[in-house]
Amino acid sequence: MAYKIIASKCTNCGACEAACPVSAISEQGGKRVIDAGVCIDCGACASTCAFDAIEA
């Protein structure tokens, strides 16, 4: 199960995108999104997010 970004908590800072080892996170329409087909469920994005905007 891929991680998901909670849009209401996300500040679009990009820390999660930088932390992702497989480049599964990108910006689309001014929001960060996680590509579930690429995500390896490592949790690097969630542990990096200072706003608790990423959930499993």
From TrEMBL:
Q: What is this protein called?
A: 4Fe-4S binding protein
Q: Name one GO molecular function term.
A: metal ion binding
Q: Which organism is it from?
A: Thermospira aquatica
Q: Where is the 4Fe-4S ferredoxin-type domain?
A: 1-30, 31-56
InterPro entries recorded: 4Fe4S_Fe-S-bd, 4Fe4S_Fe_S_CS
The answer to whether UniProt assigns keyword Cytoplasm to this entry is: no
Q: What SUPFAM superfamilies has UniProt attached to this entry?
A: 4Fe-4S ferredoxins
Keywords from the UniProt entry: Iron, Iron-sulfur, Metal-binding
- The keyword ATP-binding belongs to this UniProt entry's keyword annotation: no
**Highest taxon of the source?**
Bacteria
Against Pfam families, the record matches this protein to: Fer4_10
